[in-house]
Write a structure and sequence with these properties.
The chain is mainly α. Helix content is about 85%, strand content about 0%.
Length: about 300
């Protein structure tokens, strides 16, 4: 089971570009709309401020006088020293701060109009950010769904009624296990460690049971599937797949940077989770196929003339 599970993980890495591609499509769609619209909103804000200033004849004479006086007040008898002062960081900072302070005084009367234009720009940008985030997660979800479909088709196909049965079983298991963990934690706090181990064991056995009911019932002996050794192998296989995916993610980050590495490496982890979720089904389906195959290979007896 372990070698088979690891092999199927590496085989299904052929779908690596499916989640990355869908995520990239969602991100590109969002940015292709957001960036031009954001620049347009910024341009409208600048034009609105320019129109406010022009229509109200705002006078920047005080600001211009302040800049000219600051420059002329330097000791130009020593031109090199004066130029050195002008490129000094502290002097430039003082000049810019003083200029903006005077500009603020000139524009204070029109603060409400400028604030309104600024708020309109901010609202537009917030809407665009929400749009980009939505399309990003839409691409993430669509990529996961498509990748899961492709991996399932490759590992453990099942019909509609089997899918419904598995969904009901998963829901019942999740609710029951969560309720049990909460109840144990409420009556005994140290039970968190116990419930963690219990959850792993229950997950392994229930995954095998669910897989048996869907793919192996009346085909494979119950005892051939529901074994402690199979549960241990399943847990170990899942752990190894998850560990390998994390190693590949860390390597991706190490070779690039955090952002690029997360983008490049997340497919390894996503495919790992999908394979882990389907490992038990794939194992039992392989057993069932192996049990059915010999019967199908028996040649029919020739008809007696």
């Amino acid at each position: 089971m372990i070698l088979s599970g690891l092999k199927k993980y590496f085989v299904n890495l052929k779908y690596y570009f499916t989640p990355v591609g869908m995520l990239a499509v969602g991100l590109v769609l969002g940015l292709s709309v957001a960036l031009p619209t954001a620049f347009s909103a910024l341009k409208q804000f600048i034009n609105a401020v320019a129109e406010i200033i022009q229509s109200n004849n705002v006078d920047f004479t005080a600001t211009e006088d302040y800049i000219v006086n600051s420059i002329t007040s330097l000791n130009w008898e020593d031109p090199i020293g004066a130029l050195g002062t002008m490129i000094n960081g502290e002097w430039l900072k003082k000049l810019i701060d003083g200029s903006f302070e005077l500009i603020g005084v000139e524009l204070k009367v029109y603060a409400d109009l400028i604030t309104q234009a600024f708020e309109e720009m901010v609202v537009t940008i917030i809407v665009l950010i929400v749009l980009v985030v939505f399309l990003f997660f839409a691409g993430l979800v669509a990529g996961y769904a498509l990748t899961r479909y492709l991996v399932r088709r490759n590992m453990a196909r099942r019909g509609l009624w089997k899918m419904i049965l598995a969904s009901l079983a998963d829901s019942l298991l999740t609710v029951s296990l969560f309720a049990l963990c909460v109840w144990l934690a409420s009556i005994w706090t140290p039970s968190v460690a116990f419930t963690s181990v219990l959850s792993v064991c229950v997950f392994a056995f229930t995954s095998l049971l669910e897989a048996y009911l869907i793919h192996g019932a009346k085909v494979v002996p119950f005892s051939a599937v529901m074994r402690i050794s199979n549960a241990v192998k399943l847990v170990l296989c899942d752990f190894l797949i998850f560990f390998i995916s994390l190693v590949l993610l860390v390597i991706s980050i190490a070779l690039t940077n955090v952002v690029a590495g997360m983008f490049i490496g997340f497919s390894f982890v996503e495919i790992a989770f999908i394979v882990i979720a389907l490992n038990a089904e794939s194992y039992v389906k392989d057993l069932a196929d192996a049990a059915v195959a010999p019967c199908e290979e028996i040649p029919e007896e020739p008809a007696v003339a």
